[in-house]
Amino acid sequence: MKFTDRLQQLYARFRPQEPVTLAPGMSHLLWETEHGVTRFHLRVERDGSGMLIANAAAAARLSPSGVLIAKALLEGRDESEILDSLKATFRGAAPELMRRDIAAVHNLLQQLAAPGDAYPVFNLEDAALAPNATNLIAPLQAAVPLAPPDILRPLLKRLWEVNIPHVTFFAPTSFDPADLVHAVEHAEDLGMIAGVRALASALLTEGLLNDLRVVGVDHVTFPYAALDPGTHDALFGAGDHQAADVVLAWLEENGICANIEIPLIEGALSQLEPTIHSLLSRGADTFSLVAYVTTDPALVERHDGALSAEAMPQTAAIVEEIAHDVQARFLWEPPVERDPAQTLAEQLQQGPRCAGDAAVRVEADGRVIPPRGPYHSAGNLLHDDWEFIWDHEAFRRYRERVAAPTRCEICPGLVICAADCPRERSGWAQKA
User: Fold this and answer.
1) How confident is the model at residue 363 (pLDDT cuts 50, 70, 90)?
2) pLDDT tens digits for 176-189?
3) Alpha-carbon Rg of the chain, whole angstroms?
4) Residue 6 maps to a domain
5) One domain for residues 107 and 154
6) 408 and 283 in a common domain
7) Which residue from 115, 130, 56 is spatially nearest to 327, judged by alpha carbons?
């Protein structure tokens, strides 16, 4: 053996090893605390770093060592076992430093699992509401219009592969209940958090709610315009207000999260505070608020129901004030541009594009639609690399906006404004 070869062998024995990292991908793990069971998704990137997501709602970035520690803690391993593993992986690191890292990750898990008192009116990244800075490698949720199982299966498989842990199925006004049940079941089998969005009257189809419960649905979203039945039923059909009350009671009784979607329009806005307080008294604690807005003076003048762009800062301020005063979760969804080609009722029944800025819409043919701006595809989930889609200008612009938020001198510095000025059409969900 040559002398140089012998030296290389000796060096190989004593040089620091490359840290062992987890393979890229996503793990689905459950963690039980005094607050209940939290569903964690651990997304691992190619360099071994990752993102820890709690209930598809709160997220924090992790280093490669943090990823290993988090996975071990979520799997129930004790500190001594984790410490031995870290010593073998990160040779030369001080044991006391490793202990501090384990304690820090454990504390992070507890923080993410605990119910927070901050209201997610802004739900991607803001210094005031997100102390654990995140740089999302993918949205936290996808809104997917309901389709037959053979169409949805490849979509759901790709959503899981690109590390999107949460899907909400948007049901049309008329649909096959079996398709909705199968969709939720398949998503849950993959390890995803799965919810549905539908009119309350449609959810009362015989046996549907119970079937959704059996397959593990995590949340149910339905629109609720106002406390006044007449205001609501004029938009969502006769009897839907009563159906909404029945659905809410059933969800409360069965321990399934009810997300109340409240449209911000002329008739409903004036009743917003009493409506929310009434719903809170009946067990609701999660609200999605979506404004329907127009720049067309004719629509405003004839009181079509859509809010004017000029009214949006005041509307946003009202929402934030109510959210601050009550113990509930508020999600401010990107404002929707009023489509004059439809009646207001038709547009409200279809619902928003997707659930907030940390979400995306994926059509049945694979087109990926950003949450804000024109209804233009950023790529095709079934055919394009995710990195190509995620680097689209629409997503890049939003991330840049969040990283350097601005505040207008004439407005009160609303958290909502960090995403986009609510009166600017460029930040709305547009038809084209």
Assistant:
1) very high
2) 999 999 999 999 99
3) 24
4) no
5) no
6) yes
7) 115
Given a contact cutoff of 8 angstroms between Cβ atoms, the answer to whether 400 and 302 are in contact is no
Residue 129 in any domain: the answer is no
- pLDDT tens-digit readout, 106-132: 999 998 887 654 444 444 444 333 444
Task: Please state the φ and ψ torsions of residue 339, each to the nearest 5 degrees.
Answer: -100, 105
- What residues pair up with 259 in beta bridges, in sequence order? 221, 286
DSSP three-state, residue 17: coil
- 234 assigned to some structural domain: yes
Domain range for residue 272?
141-427
Residues 367 and 408 in one domain: yes
Q: Is the torsion defined by CA of 54, 291, 415, 420 positive or negative?
A: positive
The whole-model pTM stands at: 0.87
Angstrom distance (rounded) from CA 262 to CA 272: 8
According to DSSP, the residues that pair with 223 across neighbouring strands are: 261
Does 418 score more than 80 pLDDT?
no
When mean pLDDT is compared across 82-86, 257-261, 386-390, the lowest value belongs to 82-86
Q: Which two tokens stand for residue 298?
A: 């004719």
pLDDT value at residue 135: 64
Overall number of domains in the chain:
2
- Taking alpha carbons only, the member of 155, 158, 131 closest to residue 145 is 155
Looking at the fold, whether 330 and 229 belong to one and the same domain comes out as: yes
Beta strand segments in 34-66, E: 36-44, 50-54, 58-62
